[in-house]
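Hello Y.,

Per our agreement to keep a running log of every chain we model this quarter, I'm adding this entry. I've kept the format consistent with earlier entries: sequence first, then predicted structure.
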Amino acid sequence: MVAAKKSEYEASRQKRLEENKKRMEELNLTGLAQSMLSPKPSPMKKVKPRSLKVPLDPSKVRRSNRVADMPPISYKESVHEPAGRIRSYGRHRDLSNRVYASYEAREYARSRAEELRSQLDQDIPSFVKPMLQSHVTGGFWLGLPQHFCRGHLPSRDVIMNLIDEEGQQSEAKYLAQKTGLSGGWRGFAIEHELVDGDAIIFQLTKPTTFKVYIIRVNEHEAS
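Predicted structure for the entry above:
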C-alpha cells in the first residue's frame, strides 16, 4: 500500500518537473540563468601611451613680426660697478686684540673735539663723530648724522674727498640713502690708525670734500 502511494507521488513529481522544464525552455529561462551564473569579463580600458615632453628651445620661441628682427632680451641680473675708483687696502687687522676705550677716555676725546670744533669757522658746516669698534674694525661702516646729511650733503651717491690735517687726500663712497661712508673709509681708518674712542671732526669745506681733524683717545692717558 505504501509502495503504491510512493510510486504515484514519484510519477506526479516527475510529471511536474517535465512540465516546468518545458515552460522554462519556451521562455528561454535556462539560457538566461546560465548567463547570470557565469558573467562575462569586463573589457580592459585602453591606456594611451604618454608622450615625452621635449624641452623648449628659447631660441625657437615664436615672436611677433614687430620684434622678430630684434635681439632676444636677457633677464639675467647685471652687476654695475659703483662710480669712481676707490683705493683698496690689502692689510687685515687682528680683531682678536680689540681694545675698548674707557668711558672717561671716550668723553675726554669727545670734549676735546667739540672744543676744537668751536674754534673753527662757524660758517662752514661741521660735526663731531666719536669712533666705535664698528667704525674702525670689522665692518668699517661709518654712519653720519642724518640731519647733517639731509641739510648739507648731496641727495645721490657720490665720492667724498677726505683731507687730513697734513693735507693728504683719500676717497670714500657716500651712500645717500644710508647716510654714511662705505667703500674707501676702511682704507682711511687703517691708514690713520683710528681706534675705538677717537673723536673725528668732519668739516665740509666743499660740497663733496671733508677736512678731517683727529683727536686721539690715548691723549687722555698722556694728560
